[in-house]
Amino acid sequence: MQRDPRAYLRDAREAAAVILGFVDGKSYGDYAGDRLLRSAVERQFEIIGKVRYRFVGWISVAHPPLKAFWWMRYAYPPYENRLSVRGR
Question: 28 in a domain, yes or no?
Fold first, then answer.
C-alpha cells in the first residue's frame, strides 16, 4: 500500500519546524562548534530531501502533464556539505 503523498508533505513541514527549534537562539558559532546540533540539523535536511524526491516522483506519475518537471530532481544540486563546517 502506498503512502498518502500528503503524509510526505507533513513530514517535510515537521522536519523544517524541528530545524527551526534546534537553531532558535543559536549563532553560527554555536552551530559550528556543536557536532550534535550539526548532525541533528543535517538529518532533518535529509528527511526534507527524501520527501522532495518522493513527492516529485509521485506528481510525475499521478499527473503526466507535469512530467516535464522531473528536471527538478536534478536542477538543485544535493545540499550535502552545504551547511557543513567540516573542512574549514
Answer: yes
Residue 23, all three cell numbers: 537553531
Give SS3 for 86. coil
Domain count, the chain: 1
For 79, the 3-state DSSP assignment is: coil
Read out DSSP for 26-41? --HHHHHH-HHHHHHH
Grid cell 536534478 — which residue?
Answer: 74
- In-domain check, residue 86: no
**pTM exceeding 0.85:** no
Q: In this structure, are residues 58 and 7 in contact, taking their beta carbons and an 8 Å threshold? A: no
Measured CA to CA, the distance from residue 86 to residue 88 in angstroms comes to 5
pLDDT in tens, 10-25: 999 999 999 999 999 9
